[in-house]
Amino acid sequence: MTDIPLTIKDAAAALRNGAITSVDLTRVMLERIDTLNPSLGAFIAVTPDTALAAARQADADLQQSVDKGPLHGIPLGVKDIIATRDAPTTANSHVLDPEWGAGWDAPVVERLRTAGAVILGKTVTSEFACGAPDPDNGFPMPKNPWNLEHSAAGSSAGTGIAVAAGLALGGLGTDTGGSVRGPAASNGHTGLKVTFGRVPKFGCVPLGYSLDSVGPMARTAWDCAALLKVIAGYDPRDPTAADVPVADYTAALTSNIRGLRVGVPTNYFFDVPDLDLEVKNAVLAGIEVLKGLGADVREVHIPHAEVAKNANNLILAADGLAYHRDDLRDRWQSYGRYTRTVIARGAMFTASDYVQAQRFRSYFKKVIASAMADLDVLVTPTSTTPAEKIADMNMTRRMLGVSFTGIWNLVGLPALAVPCGFSSGGLPLSMQIVGKPFEEATVLSVGDAYQQSVDWQLRVPPIAQVPLTSSSRPVLTS
Amino acid sequence: MTSDAAISVKALLQAAQLTVTDEEFELFVKTYPDLRAGADGMYLPEVRYEEPGLNFDARWNTA
Question: What's the pTM value of the predicted model, to 2 decimals?
Fold first, then answer.
């Protein structure tokens, strides 16, 4: 991967200074997919014809000084629960109606294409964006590019792998309880769970109606900002989309966080027994970097964090069961074994539990507003451990275990997963930067400032450092 | 002897019309007490007078 830009920002510059063309860049990505996808399980469908057509158009546009912005000519992947007109949407399930989403683009995909992006295809997801990667369900099995015996996390595993291994320069995931941030953490890149309603989710297979969000995944905070700038904004087809002005997210990245108030929760996020020491130390070291950049770091107490995690899980399971119940009743065996139990968990709760979870949610929103009153962001670990071994996957832990991500879906806040080191076993570690509602620019600014001081986000897994064949390797002019 | 959790899980799955494998039934029985405790833990005194975080708009031009 030495000749090919690692980031959207660098690729955008290379496309404009003539160092590379979009067709060359797209061909390299397609070849990498050919070479690595059988081992990594990142893509379920690849659309080379439409991708190369979009790349040719981007090259022609840029040559004529028609510049649609930093995504123009950039190859991206789209999670396979988001409708795209040129590839089927399966949700990696045998249950979803094949006609679902057929022949049209979700608003987020429409916006990417309008911005000149090159859509390479559909990336692997855990079935219906929940459950866990299942080697037996007949879909590509996503594997961690840093160690194939380890999970790439989920549910947006395919986009996460594609970004980490250079099969795409960025892409879309969705996040209901951590499905953008988990794969970003496990695969070693950046991923943003947006404020609820920031990005329209029409055209996405639902999981938790009041928790779901579509978010950008890419190597850096700057790249995520470039993606967000395009996909954010109101769309009337999503009843939960927020009509809130879209900031110029890339322009907001000044690298200056002097005086920015960073809260570090003393409870739950740093004191649960499940927290791996290497994760904890890497995040604390990351906080020291922020301090060195001039951030005002303070301790903060977040009451009821574990209850909030439980409330998010309950709402997710209940919403999911409402959507899937009849199919689960009639076609239990057609669902993957990990998916069906995670969704059927919703049957363990009562209607009043669901309402109480929503009442707790109202209360917890005030708790967080109060805790963050004198803060700009919170910083926590993204996950408790580095990516788990696939062979060690444990459904009890999946149903009941500690989570640092779903809490922020419950209160709808933006949260950015940022690489902050590697474990002694060579697996990526990640910290989470949580902001106030619709303050994506602030969390991206903190992430970007941090990434000016470190290079964790630019590390490339050994499996992805494959030589390209001479036929497809572009000739670089600079 | 069938545990209380097993009785509850069996009834809840039946009410939802779901037929699970034996192994899956055991998973639900094993996790049910913790799931139940997690739900019960949301009934906090502080939440007593909160409105649920749900919105419904009666106007006909909205979803």
Answer: 0.96
Is A361 a residue whose pLDDT tops 90? yes
* Cβ separation A332–B19 shorter than 8 A: yes
Q: Across the interface, which of A210, A341, A360 has its CB nearest the CB of B42?
A: A360
* A313/B47 touch (CB, cutoff 8 Å), yes or no: no
Q: Which residues of A touch B28 (CB under 8 A)?
A: 341, 344-345, 348
Q: Confidence band (pLDDT; 50, 70, 90) for A397?
A: confident
Residue indicated by tokens 């739950």: A268
Q: What percent of chain A has pLDDT over 90?
A: 93
Specify whether the CB–CB gap between A406 and A312 falls below 8 A: yes
Structure-block tokens of residue A414: 């933006």
**Contact assessment for residue A161 and residue A187, using Cβ atoms and an 8 Å cutoff:** yes
First CA to last CA distance, chain B: 50
For the cut 70, the answer to whether the pLDDT of residue A195 exceeds it is yes
Whether B22 has its CB under 8 Å from any CB of chain A: the answer is no
What pLDDT digit, counting tens, does each position of A366-386 carry? Answer: 999 999 999 999 999 999 999
List the single residue in A347, A361, A399 with the smallest CB-CB distance to B13.
A347
Indicate yes or no: CB of A313 within 8 angstroms of CB of B38.
yes
CB of B45 less than 8 A from some CB of A: no
ipTM over 0.85: yes
CA distance A227 to A21: 20
